[in-house]
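During the reporting period the student researcher (J.K.) took over the structure-prediction task from the postdoctoral fellow and processed the backlog of single-chain submissions. One of the processed entries is reproduced below for the supervisory committee.
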Amino acid sequence: PDMLPEENTKMIYITRAGRDVAFSFYKHLSHQIEGDTVAFEGSFDEFVPEWVSGNLPFGRWTDHLQAWREPEREGVLYLSYEGLKHDLPVGVHAIAEFLELGLTRERVDELVPRFTIESMKADAKTFEPVSVQWKDGFEFVRKGVVGDAAANFSPELDRLFEGMMAEGWPEGVPDWVPGPECK
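J.K. obtained the following structure tokens:
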């Protein structure tokens, strides 16, 4: 965030439960064409130790969260993926208001269906990064299910994840970090 302009800017920062972040990031990196500078070749069991230690592109997830939230920054709307999945209309209204778009409540309600996972999947090429070459058959917009990654975490991977969280926040994980209920 320190590299971004702070005057007269508005940013939207969306957090997501850490296990879901890890699995989504694994799917992202492991489906890039081999030779891409950030592609990951290996299993999820091999990925998680690298992710929690910050040895993968973009560093540790907890460091990223802390950089954006400690302290809270002015001009940033903080949302969670889980909150958006739970009540997308409320999230879209909050975004429209934050950005001062001047949209009526009715107009925002009309737009909400365009922001669902189903709608994104129907128009997947619009959302797929073009700066990366993908392996055949990869779908950039996957499932969008909250807590879906938990089934992929063995007890050992859970231990590593919980260790990262405890190291990132020795005094306890802040309420704004999507937590165990998303496990």
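The committee noted the following: The first strand starts at residue 11 and ends at 15.
J.K. will present the remaining backlog at the next meeting.
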